[in-house]
Amino acid sequence: MAQQAYVTETDNGGSEPERPGSRLRRVAGRVAAGWRGDRRIWRRGLIVAAVALLLALVMVGHAYIPNSVGNLGSLTETFLPWIGVFVPLLFLLALVRRSAVALIAVLIPAVVWFNIFGGLLSDKAGAAGGHVTVVTHNVNADNPDAPGTARDVAASGADVVALEELTASAVPVYESALAAAYKYHSVQGTVGLWSKYPLRDVRPVDIKLGWIRAMRATVRTPEGPLAVYVAHLPSVRVKLEAGFTARERDTSADALGEAIGDEQLPRTVLLGDLNGTMNDRALKAVTAQMRSTQGAAGSGFGFSWPASFPMARIDQILVKGVEPVSSWTLPETTSDHLPVAARVKMDPSS
Fold first, then answer.
1. Buried (b) or exposed (e) across 172-209, using 16+ Cβ within 10 A?
2. 164 and 100 in one domain?
3. How far is CA 36 from CA 21, 31, 42, 319, in A?
4. Can you tell me the distance from the alpha carbon of 148 to that of 339, in angstroms, rounded to the nearest whole number?
5. Could you tell me if 136 and 313 are in contact, meaning their C-beta atoms sit under 8 angstroms apart?
6. What is the DSSP string of 287-300?
7. What gap in Å lies between CA 56 and CA 110, rounded to an integer?
8. Does residue 298 surpass a pLDDT of 80?
9. Between the ranges 4-8, 96-100, 164-168, 242-246, where is the mean pLDDT highest?
């Protein structure tokens, strides 16, 4: 069947094929004609405009949202990137309302969001290189296929692997499944570290819980010693009567930050489920002294939880004294978290 061609009238009364984009211009012209001369475009959509300005204010001033009521500040910071989802919706509402005020107002949160998070949309991974690949994975205490998860993690080829939420019954399963790939390992409480390189000075780290959920070890890499911390900070809870409760997590974060601050080795990596994002002020004791590999050398947000539809990056790889080269999430396992990985470069002079 012959394809129909759109034509436009020429100056001499003939016709010629319609130029690309002319239909779009006609549609835009019709829209503009409907707005032209309508003085109410500056009076309609004030509610939409107000909501847009409120979103911008929340993103700019999230640090001033108090935690005294249900830890609302930390809750907002955990899901802060998702505020951007409302910008296209408000833009459509402004168009439907035919409001010039709302359209202009929507530009403000759009600019603010791209200023804060736009850098995460680009791929910042460096060229091939680096010395050590690390992986961390909360394997989930109720994991229905621990051997399969162990095989998936080992298939990453990482030099160092940290696992969190280990149960006493699952530890032998992971030890057996990872033995071929990792000659050295240590389990402290509910966290463990597997390494292709020798481990020294292994010890638990007290994060004020009454049981062990953090550890520290020196990994003897070919490029020199690397202090590796593994931590699983307490979970946060959202309750109707108390809001976003995270007191235990916050106390543990402060204790972990103090331990890392006292570290004597200049090159340090923290692997674990911190139950908080880099934006969460409650983790400042840790994040103020370390860099996120995802933020420095990753592509995208690197959301890791929940695995079925990741909405936040609460599984972290943080470093100081080493240079992130690349950072990424690994494919889903049978855990409710995604594994996260990074490759780092160690300066021989450190």
1. ebbbebbeebbebbbbbbbbbbbbbbebeebeebebeb
2. no
3. 22, 9, 12, 56
4. 13
5. no
6. HTT-EEHHHHHBBS
7. 8
8. yes
9. 164-168
- Residue showing tokens 């996260």: 340
Q: For the segment 212-255, what is each residue's pLDDT rounded down to a tens digit?
A: 999 999 999 999 999 999 999 998 765 544 445 677 888 999 99
Q: Are 139 and 255 found together in one domain?
A: yes
Domain boundary at 121, 149, 178, which? 121
Q: How far is CA 79 from the centre of its chain?
A: 10
Give me the count of residues in the chain.
350
Question: How buried is 147 (Cβ within 10 angstroms: 0-12 exposed, 13-18 middle, 19+ buried)?
Answer: middle
| DSSP letter, residue 234 | P
* Whole-number Å distance between alpha carbons of 305 and 272: 13
Name the amino acid, one letter, at 231.
A
Domain boundary among 121, 142, 172: 121
Strands (E), the chain: 7-9, 15-17, 132-138, 160-164, 184-188, 191-195, 199-204, 214-221, 224-232, 237-239, 243-245, 268-273, 291-292, 315-320, 323-329, 340-345
147 and 202 both lie in a single domain: yes
Cα separation of 175 and 166, whole Å?
11
Q: Encoding tokens for residue 229?
A: 């911390």
Tell me the per-residue pLDDT of 27-83, one tens digit each, with 9 for 90 and over: 555 555 556 667 788 889 999 999 999 999 999 999 999 887 777 888 899 999 999
Same domain membership, residue 240 and residue 277: yes
Distance, in Å, from the CA atom of 195 to the CA atom of 202, rounded to the nearest integer, reads 12
